[in-house]
Write a structure and sequence with these properties.
300 residues; 12 strands
Length: 300
């Protein structure tokens, strides 16, 4: 099977995840991928919760912001129930609250606001100057120079089919260990075309926005995936400024202004290919040293 076909199938699988089952007027059920994972990916829960909220809102009111908290790890082996609270339906704004439930407990909550399209003052920050996505290697091509160190099996797993084509401007930090400034730029788009549904495009970017953002706060400290730190998203907020398509190239410019108290704060700006600021993202995450990293050994 070709790489392009594999990638398209991966996107189809993601779209299936976002096609929630409606159980009642304000009640939905979502599934997780049939994969060997310890907990549900946070971006999946955020995207599914936004789908649930959007299903209760008129289509002429696109989402303009969401604020969410990750409360407990999600169990990938059981469905997630999403309960929507229709807080307010105003003349211009619609507000929804969504809680995600597993095993009788809330694992995630989200507040989302939707607004009719209106005109007003308009300004935006400029996109940073970085190489375009066409000039950057694919994920598989970027891994090839490290084939000897990582091994063919690991490279094959890392470059497996994905719903999101991700092209970082620089090598990922786990390929080139060592401290670096707390910022990174990654071009993203879906591996295939999407329907003309603005809510779906917003949900796809909500999913993708959690893939790399917290990593930005670890870069100055050369923190890798070696089990020395416990890392998890704590909260996630997004503001949707201008129209965009998730199946066209978007630059995800990520920075981290602070890390302290076992928490890291990261800020993301998403630009369309022509340099238009489309989305702003903020996330705080847990970056907790494991006990052995902060306590001296008591062995004697």
């Amino acid at each position: 099977m070709s790489e392009e076909t594999d990638s398209t199938r991966a996107l189809d699988d993601l779209l299936v995840l976002l096609e929630l089952e409606r159980l009642e007027v304000n009640l939905f059920r979502g599934l997780s991928p049939d994969e060997d994972q310890q907990r549900v990916f946070g971006g999946q829960v955020a995207a599914q919760a936004l789908v649930a909220a959007g299903r209760t809102v008129e289509s002429d009111r696109p989402v303009h912001s969401l604020h969410s908290y990750f409360l407990r790890p999600g169990d990938p082996n059981v469905p997630i129930i999403y309960e929507v609270d229709r807080i307010r339906d105003g003349r211009s704004f619609t507000t929804r609250r969504v809680i995600a439930i597993q095993h009788g407990r809330v694992i995630f909550n989200l507040a989302a606001s939707f607004q009719i399209v209106e005109s007003g003052p308009d300004h935006a920050m400029e996109m940073p100057e970085v190489p375009g996505p066409e000039a950057l290697p694919t994920y598989r091509e970027r891994l090839q120079p490290y084939l000897g160190r990582l091994g063919a099996e690991m490279v094959a797993w890392l470059s497996r089919e994905r719903p999101i084509d991700s092209r970082p401007v620089e090598d990922p930090h786990w390929l080139e260990p060592g401290p670096r400034p707390p910022e990174q730029d990654v071009w993203i788009r879906t591996n295939g075309a999407l329907p003309d549904d603005p809510l779906l495009h917003a949900c796809i970017v909500a999913y993708a926005s959690d893939l790399s953002l917290l990593d930005t706060a670890t870069l100055p400290h050369a923190i890798g995936y070696d089990g020395h730190y416990q890392m998890a998203s704590l909260d996630h907020a997004m503001w949707f400024h201008r129209p965009f398509r998730a199946d066209e190239w978007l630059l995800y410019h990520q920075t981290s202004p602070s890390a302290h108290g076992a928490r890291g704060l990261a800020l993301g700006h998403v630009f369309t290919h022509d340099g238009t600021l489309a989305i702003t993202v903020m996330q705080e995450g847990l970056i907790r040293p494991m006990a052995s990293e902060v306590e001296p050994s008591r062995a004697s």
